[in-house]
Design a protein that fits this description.
Largest sheet: 5 strands, mixed
Number of strands: 7
Shape: elongated
Number of domains: 2
Structural class: alpha/beta
Length: 247
């Protein structure tokens, strides 16, 4: 890219290729290129500092931080704010043009660029949300299996935790051995998902007392540099639930 009159660039992000459209001060298109990931960074390094817009999708924050180091002013836009500026049927270049158009609007609402630490913390929250969803699904599945066999349990994890030992130890008129084993396996999964994570602590080179497949991620929170979040993802080891006889 040898264009020195570019003032605004719109980038349509992809996994491996990126479509780039550049405007001059009059709003005319003077750049329309398709670049690979490596070519994009090398090309934009040779362009004078300008305004660059991208949709706030996967990889946008990482690329945005790199472009800011090159001296560019990076703006991330929600995808729904770009759609009104799209001309004709959507394709990659038209989408990049619409992004550049929307980036120039003085009243546009942009997405703040996240730091690497903020993305790490966001990833931890997403993993936790997935585990909570799985835990709820396991509890509801146990309750559903019991209800199908005439054994209703009132709503709530605490109620099921109290009722399950009595149900499994009672005479097996309504529950076949196969279903009992299935519920016991689900109870073990529940115990695994319900296990509290270890307390936060300093980063240590001493191996953690978990199986080799366990992964521990420690992230320094941006709001308090002296505090660390520690989150451990363990392999499925299927321990039992306290108070429930799974033998």
């Amino acid at each position: 890219m040898s264009h020195t009159n570019i003032v605004t660039i719109g980038i349509d992000l992809g996994k491996n290729t990126f479509n780039v459209v550049g405007f001059d001060a009059t709003g005319a298109i003077i750049l329309r290129k398709k670049r690979s990931r490596n070519q994009l960074e090398q090309s934009l390094a040779n362009v004078p500092a300008c305004l660059i817009g991208m949709e706030a999708c996967s990889g946008a924050h990482h690329l945005g931080r790199k472009l800011e180091k090159l001296g560019h002013q990076v703006r991330l836009l929600p995808a729904q704010y770009v759609k009104p500026y799209l001309k004709g049927h959507k394709n990659d270049f038209r989408n990049a043009e619409a992004i550049a158009e929307a980036t120039q609007r003085p009243t546009m609402r942009f997405v703040p660029l996240k730091s690497a630490e903020q993305l790490d913390l966001q990833a931890l929250h997403r993993v936790r949300s997935r585990l909570v969803t799985q835990r709820t699904a396991v509890i509801n599945q146990i309750r559903g299996f019991l209800l199908e066999r005439g054994l209703p349990v009132r709503q709530g994890a605490a109620a099921l935790r109290l009722a399950l030992p009595q149900i499994l130890s009672a005479p097996k008129d309504n529950l076949s051995p196969r279903v009992i084993q299935l519920i016991q396996d689900l109870a073990e999964d529940w115990r695994h998902l319900d296990r509290p994570p270890p307390k936060p602590g300093p980063i240590s080179s001493t191996p953690a007392p978990y199986p080799p497949a366990a992964v521990t991620v420690i992230v320094g929170a941006t709001l308090d540099p002296g505090f660390q979040y520690q989150f451990t993802v363990r392999p499925p080891v299927r321990p039992g639930i306290e108070g429930i006889n799974v033998k």
